[in-house]
């Protein structure tokens, strides 16, 4: 039977605002524990939250980049659960009136573009960080003590929920890669999975073609794009095996253990499914002014999905992705603007580390010259950011491929080394390198190696 994979993702990204979501503590990582706290984020009685204006604006901006509608009114809710990392006993989050709804995110693809529905993007505060001591792998099971660091508590988090529109682990990986690039380019988050500033949970199920959705599993705690893809694949394999054995797939939350490639049931606070959401009485609804929304929309740069689509026409889809996902794109664009043919510009930009402030118009003259020595090109690239950089001196470093110029030189070298010539003709073909080396030395490294090789080989045959 041909099972179809069905995946929806829930992504959390830390916003890199200077201060926390509802107090004036500075955000920050790697500080000594519990040094970035105040009565508000420690939930002292009588304190009141004040929303971070920039976090609201950035969430709206992200929502617009994801093609979302921005409703005229959004509401903060209390999501109640009891856990030591949550001193208030609830997380301020959003429930049925989030900041951003009904988006659509395009992921350009080889055969067709994916269009991934975005259910919502909302703003909330992060919990504190718990550290379990002396347990295996920092887990709570077997730990002798648990410590809480409240520095992270109250950091603004944007949560993005997709429709179950992804049809493979590979599609999920691509979507995430592009979403991350978009978030980073908007300048609102570093979105680094290793540092925990980007986290992703996956809802995974399988079904037969034409069927409605079957029971899903939720996968948590996967901390790299490739682990997410492998976790999804592991869940798909396990579910297909259960279905085909006629067994029931029970709704469950799992952790993916990448080392063992296995799924283990997740023990957590999230098992209590009733969060008793109710509107946060200490905060008025957020009503983003239409002028603000339109200003943020107008400020959006050309987004990665659009640039990939634009470059794909010239470079093909795979290289267009590679270009947009690296920091070489600006160099590429500058070279193409200076009339370098796209393929040549791509190869040059990807292979050379062009300084960010290079004079690309001038450097383009170097790229367009096919016969420069490799050393000359590298020195030109290194010099391209110098004030007053000119390609002229490097254009003079053309490799010599003029046979009329090289032939007499080669003849001189062969005449000066009769012993080596005889040995070569007697079968020691490795000596070709010796002759090439001599000729290179005499031309100061400027001979075109390909032409030189051919000429010498020819002369030795004679
Ligand atoms: Zn605080
Ligand atoms: Mn959340």
Overview of the structural elements:
- This protein is of the alpha+beta class and 462 residues long.
- The protein contains 15 helices and 13 strands.
- The protein folds into 3 domains: 294 residues, no CATH class; 70 residues, no CATH class; 59 residues, Arc Repressor Mutant, subunit A, CATH 1.10.10.
- Helix content is 37%, strand content 19%.
- The strands form 3 sheets. Strands 4-5-8-1-9-10-11-12 form an 8-stranded mixed sheet.
- Strand 4 and strand 5 form a beta hairpin.
- Helix 2 runs antiparallel to helix 3 and helix 5 packs across helix 6.
- The longest helix is centred in the middle third of the chain and has 20 residues.
- The termini are far apart.
- Bound molecules: zinc ion (ZN) and manganese (II) ion (MN).
- Zinc ion (ZN) binds next to loops.
Strand order of the largest sheet: 4-5-8-1-9-10-11-12
**N- and C-termini, Cα separation:** 68 Å
The hetero compounds bound to this protein are: zinc ion, manganese (II) ion
Radius of gyration in whole Å, from Cα? 30 Å
Structural class: alpha+beta
The 3D shape can be described as: elongated
